[in-house]
Design brief:
The chain is mostly helical. It has a domain of 29 residues. Keywords: Coiled coil.
């Protein structure tokens, strides 16, 4: 009977040793898994932070894109306005140039070079007429702004 009890004790001690070894393995596996879970949580937090940064960058990009669109629209409006003003000025120049006596009216489209030549002719004729008047002794205002500035007396101011 004693032998059977010792044999049972030995079997039980072996079983306890096996269970302790298995418990040690499981504890080690739990620790490894806990470490892995911690790493995964850290990675998840990093991914979430990066996702938030990407979202912020995307929103910033959309905001800048909208500002660029608005600036582009404003630039287009300004360009159209400037083109309209330039075309009105061009039209007035053409009218002034070709409404001068001695210039024949053209039914065809007028080129810019033709307009320039006509303007140069008008300026030359005006300058010649101005010089003729000056030679005859007629007092006439100067032709150019720089001449006006040269002939005006300067006022002396006292301090």
């Amino acid at each position: 009977m004693m032998g059977l009890i010792q044999k049972d004790n030995l079997v039980l001690r072996e079983r306890v040793s096996e269970l302790e070894a298995e418990l040690t393995k499981r504890d080690l596996a739990i620790m490894e898994l806990s470490t892995k879970v911690g790493e995964l949580q850290t990675q998840t937090e990093r991914d979430q932070d990066q996702g938030q940064r990407w979202q912020q960058l995307h929103e910033e990009w959309q905001s800048r894109n909208e500002m660029v669109r608005q600036a582009e629209q404003a630039t287009r409006v300004a360009l159209e306005s400037a083109q309209s003003r330039l075309e009105r000025l061009r039209s007035k120049i053409i009218q002034a140039t070709f409404n001068v006596s001695g210039i024949k009216s053209l039914a065809t489209e007028i080129s810019d070079n033709h307009i320039l030549e006509a303007l140069q002719r008008i300026i030359s004729e005006r300058s010649d007429y101005y010089n003729q008047l000056k030679q005859k002794g007629v007092r006439v205002p100067p032709l150019q702004q720089s001449e006006i500035m040269l002939t005006k007396p300067k006022k002396v101011t006292s301090k």
